[in-house]
UniProtKB/TrEMBL annotation:
The lineage of its organism: Eukaryota, Viridiplantae, Streptophyta, Embryophyta, Tracheophyta. The chain crosses the membrane at residues 9-29. It comes from the Eukaryota. This is Uncharacterized protein. Keywords: Membrane, Transmembrane, Transmembrane helix.
């Protein structure tokens, strides 16, 4: 199954990674 790798998917992936990194940082601080 193939799908078009558009900018919306790329941006959502970047936002997800940033949120995950921020969450791990918050856990590290506490």
């Amino acid at each position: 199954m193939m799908y078009c790798f558009d900018e919306t998917l790329y941006m959502s992936m970047i936002i997800f990674l940033q949120m995950h990194a921020a969450g791990s940082l918050l856990v590290g601080y506490t």
